[in-house]
Design brief:
The protein is an alpha+beta fold. A 5-stranded mixed sheet has the order 1-2-3-7-8, with no helix packed on it. The protein has a 5-stranded antiparallel sheet with strand order 9-4-5-6-10. The chain has a single domain, classed as Medium-chain alcohol dehydrogenases, catalytic domain (Quinone Oxidoreductase, Chain A, domain 1). Pfam families: ADH_N (PF08240).
């Protein structure tokens, strides 16, 4: 059952949207290779250990293109909101989320970490059992449901733990990284820097292909 719905106008106070279903624009794919449809969708409130994010910037990756084209039939799930490289602001947080709060600058990540499984605790890999990269995954981990739906109530599937081709998205808190900012609270310099990181993220990931697992590794991004 859909609760109160708030239609976004681009400059909403978070107090107006907290705990409510948001209506916003998203690019929705309805079939393999079909043109994206930019339309209004419903984005439901975050549940336990989830975060709803207002997307500020997003970019497209070849993974989005190949998945949209449906080259792997087993991974097909439509309608779907693609996109997995972005940055945004935490609009609201669900029960149990303590490491970030509303208004924090955040980056949704497609390779999340629960912190408890044997892989998260292993020094040689970070491929989490629950929140690792999984192109087959199309719903939320907590209840097997989606947080997106069409305006007439039909579910819209998630993509790579993130789904960023939308004005708002809901992700598991294990798939969000908070960006620490200086005490003055001005987010603009950080947003500009993160825009560059999002744009070059794919190239940064390529660099890791040349490192050997098991050796000490530190990646430094100098702003």
């Amino acid at each position: 059952m859909i609760g109160p719905v708030v239609v976004t106008n681009g400059n909403l106070n978070r107090n107006d949207t907290r705990g409510k279903t948001i209506t916003c624009k998203a690019a929705v794919a309805y079939g393999p290779g079909e043109p994206f449809v930019v339309e209004r969708v419903l984005v439901h409130p975050p549940q336990k250990m989830e975060v709803r994010i207002k997307i500020l910037f997003t970019t497209i990756c070849h993974t989005d293109l190949s998945s949209w084209q449906g080259k792997n039939e087993a991974q097909r799930a439509y309608p779907r909101i693609f996109g997995h490289e972005a940055c945004g602001i935490a609009e609201s947080v669900g029960e149990g989320v303590n490491d970030m709060k509303e208004g924090d600058l955040v980056v949704p990540i497609f390779n999340g970490e629960c912190g408890d499984c044997k892989y998260c605790k292993c020094e040689k890999t970070n491929m989490c059992e629950r929140f690792g990269v999984d192109p087959m995954k199309k719903v939320m981990a907590s209840d097997g449901a989606t947080r997106f739906s069409t305006t007439d109530g039909k579910p819209i599937f998630h993509f790579l733990n993130t789904s960023t081709f939308t004005e708002y998205t809901v992700v598991d808190s294990a798939c969000v990284v908070k960006i620490d900012v200086d005490g003055h609270g001005d987010l603009n310099p950080y947003i500009k820097k993160l825009t560059l990181v999002v744009a070059y993220q794919r190239e940064i990931n390529k660099a890791f292909d040349h490192f050997t697992v098991g050796k000490s590794l530190r990646c430094l991004l100098h702003f």
